[in-house]
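== Sequence entry ==
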Amino acid sequence: MSDSELEEVFKSFCAFGAGSKDTTAAMDNAKFGKLFRDLKLYDKKFTSTDTDIIFNRPEVKSKTERKINFSQFKKALELCAEKKYGSKGDVQKLIDKIVAGKGPGTSGATKAVKTGGVDRLTDTSKYTGSHKERFDESGKGKGLEGRKDFDEKASAGYVGGYQGKDTYDKTH
């Protein structure tokens, strides 16, 4: 496997969860751990604690740095291979597993549920009262227009159905 394939995997994990403004190819400790977790490289001998320790070793990065670049990443992989397989010479075995694996995943992310009572609660056509005013015919929310009452009666301090505005002084 070539360095370019490994670098592509490195960049994909660096970019995972980063905003569009963050274009640097640098990996923090959380994404370093995510790489090993997503590719199922942990076992009883090699754990997430080991990756945390290796990520912060002085051979990999200085204490003031928060992220590592690709060359520091390769050095960290050597140390991980030594911990996992017993020698730094087995780094190619680890690299092959990383390159053969897929990119970052979102396993465990919450998915929308449409069963049981939830289906009924999310159907905007069944809403009544003031709640039905919050959505248009297609079921899309109106935003502030649907939540605010812009009626002049409401701003004058009268309740919605009151018909006798300014009649109190005349009758009393």
The CA atoms of residues 145 and 161 lie 20 Å apart.
